[in-house]
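Researcher: Final request for today, and then I'll write up notes for the group meeting. The sequence and the SMILES for S-adenosylmethionine follow.
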Amino acid sequence: MDDRLSILDTSDGSNSISSEKYKATYHSIHGAIEESMHVFISAGLYYKFLHAHTSVKIFEMGFGTGLNAYLTSICSQKIGLEVEYHSLELHPIPAEIYQQLNFHSQIPDTNQLDFLKLHESRWEVLNEINPTFKLKKIKANLEEIDLEGGYDLIFYDAFAPSSQESLWEEPIHKKLYDALSQNGALVTYCAQGKFKRTLKKLGYKLDKLPGPGRKHEMTRAIKD
Ligand SMILES: C[S@@+](CC[C@H](N)C(=O)[O-])C[C@H]1O[C@@H](n2cnc3c(N)ncnc32)[C@H](O)[C@@H]1O
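Model: Predicted protein-S-adenosylmethionine complex:
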């Protein structure tokens, strides 16, 4: 399989990456930052903050460009929410790609060093990125890994079911459900009917939320 990655511009001016191997882009082409802010920060991080959390342990499926981690590190600092962020990635992107990404120039009050710090932090250990944000990157396959557990929030950012169907099926989502704490939430951009039925079968309560940009819907699943 071809593993070539190329950088593209999305409609809000922020970059994303296109993967030939998975025949997919890492974010919506209608706006990478817009999608990430809407699905993971507003419906995930801020939702937990509003429910009186002072600290949150997050598991992210797919570190990718590091955009979700970057926005979480910035936003957690702004609102004073302590975050321990574990992010899984099977194919870390090479430095010649992440060094060219333009996210820092699209977000106020940040700079490229803050972004590169995430990519250059060590794998498999907890790194203090800023006073509120700690990051552990884990290089492993979601289909094989045993998850640590005790997560308050899951950022489920796998490629779409049309690219990686098994990552949206019951065996993986049973493992994720078991890794969430009570009242924990899983957020994702995907609102496919089959996937939502799987989540309900596992015992989640689903919040139907509008999706980012032109997207009709996204999913927030609560372990009730
Ligand atoms: C949609 S992208 C993630 C986008 C990322 N959250 C971001 O902000 O850029 C999906 C990611 O999952 C990774 N991936 C694909 N299959 C995987 C697997 N089985 N286990 C772990 N990571 C996987 C891909 O390499 C890719 O980086």
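Model: Residues 26, 62, 64-65, 67-68, 88-91, 141-143, 157-159, 164 surround S-adenosylmethionine (CB under 6 Å). Residues 8 and 195 are 28 Å apart (CA to CA).
Researcher: Thanks, that's everything.
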